[in-house]
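[retry 2/3] Transposable element Tcb2 transposase: previous attempt timed out, resubmitting with same input.
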Amino acid sequence: MTVRQARTVPTVSYSTIQLITATFIPSVVPSTISRRLSEAVLLSHRPFRRLPLTPQHRLSPLYWCRSQSSWLPSDWHRMVFSDESRFTLEADDHRVRVWRGQSQRSQLVFVLQRHTTITPGVMEWSAISYDSRSSLVILPTSLTAERYVDTILRPIALPFMARNPAPFSNKIMPSHIPLAYLWTVSVRLILFLGQQVHQTFHQSRISETW
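[retry 2/3] Transposable element Tcb2 transposase: success.
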């Protein structure tokens, strides 16, 4: 019964499992419930969060890649790529947990899809071309259309593109490796220092890396 509850409703709390189990088996003790869950390799984890992408979101990069499949290296040298990523600096699970196995993290039933987080974080944006890179933009807030125009597009992106006259792309491509590395550094910095990372320190370390 204990294992069935956790598998049927992955977000059920441990206290609820105890309550329901005790209703049918009054003599059960908490250690027995914990042992049953452990034997079934069901552990309590924070749900994996990701953007609610539609099929069109997934197909657009594929179509774009196919349309450029005949490009030569000289064509790619004229491209400018940009990317942005948001990092949450505090835990935002609000006691939400899911019971799952070790290899089930990305399964849809254990995923929480949402567009934004509800805790403080930083947004990082940058652009690269074949032989140059833009300034790194770090925003201690969410990125809106107005902020994108006022803090990125006008002061950073347009001057950078003027110095590098080329087509512009914000698609996630293999040429994003330097940007992906920067985002990886951000994640490792947060994990190494713990969730409570001071924004000023985070910004200085990432700026040094860039």
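[retry 2/3] Transposable element Tcb2 transposase: Residues 89 and 197 are 6 Å apart (CA to CA).
[retry 2/3] clearing retry counter.
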